[in-house]
Design brief:
By secondary structure, the protein is α+β, with helices and mostly antiparallel strands. 28% of the residues lie in helices and 25% in strands. It contains four helices and five strands, in the order βααβββαβα. It has a five-stranded mixed β-sheet with strand order 1-2-3-4-5. It is globular. The N and C termini lie far apart (31 Å).
């Protein structure tokens, strides 16, 4: 198996929704909004096993100083193969010199993001208004 990355926003909605649903992300239940969000992202990096979408990450950014990573997900059948790290490395090529790189990690993902160089932000707390169900 050879995984290849793409940096375009040409996405098949069915494959995107299947990836989100496989990970039990509630945004997969809002296909129109999800596809619009990805299309309006600063960057989208996708991972492919031939023509099958197996991973996706997106960024929101001012293009100069700050970048936020709202989504990074890999199909559960492909977990542990380094695909998430490949996506984060691709983002580092683009945003590595930025003043702030920000994300919110659920407890299961903290260890992964630490391996990618992230650490808990000094005296901060994640806050949100969330209308999902996971």
């Amino acid at each position: 198996m050879t995984i290849h990355l793409r940096e375009d926003k040409i996405l098949d909605p069915t494959q995107v929704i299947n990836l989100y649903k496989a990970n039990k992300w509630s945004s997969g239940e809002k296909p129109r909004q999800l596809m619009s969000a990805l299309a309006n992202s600063h960057a989208v990096v996708t991972a492919w096993d031939e023509d099958i979408l197996v991973g996706l990450g997106n960024s929101l950014s001012d293009g100069s100083l700050v970048v936020y990573y709202p989504h990074l997900l890999v199909h559960p059948q492909y977990h542990g193969l380094g695909i998430g790290r490949m996506i984060m490395e691709k983002f580092q090529e683009k945003y590595g010199g930025f003043h702030q790189q920000i994300l919110v990690a659920n407890n299961q993902a903290v260890k992964f993001y630490r391996k990618c160089g992230f650490k808990r932000a000094y005296k901060t707390s994640s806050m949100w208004i969330f209308r999902g169900n996971e």
